[in-house]
Amino acid sequence: MSAPAADLTGWIPAPFTGGGFTHDVYRKGEGPGVVLIPEIPGIHPGVLGLGDHLVDNGFTVAIPSLFGEPGRPVTMGYVLPTLARVCVTREFQAFATNRQRPVTRFLRALARDLNASTPGKGVGVIGQCFTGGFALAAAVDEAVLAPVLSQPSVPLPLTPKQRRDAGLSDVELGVIADRAANEGLCAIGLRFSEDKMAPGERFGTLKDRLGDAFEVIEIDSSPANAHGFTPMAHSVLTEEVRDLDGHPAYEARKRVVEFLTERLMAG
């Protein structure tokens, strides 16, 4: 059984400008808003499969095309040059620690715009892989009520300092911690236990600052794990999902939908 995948059918693209940047945003669905930030190499069929799943569960989903070619399948010949390009782009600052990344200004503006045009209490933001930490940084804006960090990999974890870094500036993390303490903001983080690209030290930093407001879902990918995940397992919500009850990535995706429903839907 393969991971859920979809194409661009029904997704409506339109340019959006915010925070000094302009990107096409693909939108679909009705209901409370969720900004779904794609993983490297872009809006691939697995990201679209996740987007369709969110739409089917009653959300309006907006996917910004920050890099790559929308709809193009994942291959190593596509991933590597895309990663090389984004790593040196000022918008993302892939190696910097304790840094506010320029792209987060765009994402906050997009979240505010989506919130203004959708029902519900606020919006969710899901970041994945290279963009995982951007979801939490977006929650500096009060429109964001449900940030989800799936295998956050920036800053790229080459040194101990980078592995511990939360992926946003201390000032931004302070705002998030204040919102968690005083406004009830909560976040979810997901990773595979052996994933070196999304180090456990990063979640440790976030847990220390946010406490019970940061829910950690860690899936066992150690040798001889019960579900056969390899030590290279990485994409919790896309490539590793199988539509089987009890499958850890499937259950993690269910928990994300439940979290978004709890946080965003009135009632």
Automatic annotation (TrEMBL):
<dbReference type="InterPro" id="IPR002925">
    <property type="entry name" value="Dienelactn_hydro"/>
</dbReference>
<feature type="domain" description="Dienelactone hydrolase">
    <location>
        <begin position="30"/>
        <end position="260"/>
    </location>
</feature>
<protein>
    <submittedName>
        <fullName>Dienelactone hydrolase family protein</fullName>
    </submittedName>
</protein>
<keyword id="KW-0378">Hydrolase</keyword>
<dbReference type="Pfam" id="PF01738">
    <property type="entry name" value="DLH"/>
</dbReference>
<dbReference type="InterPro" id="IPR029058">
    <property type="entry name" value="AB_hydrolase_fold"/>
</dbReference>
<dbReference type="GO" id="GO:0016787">
    <property type="term" value="F:hydrolase activity"/>
</dbReference>
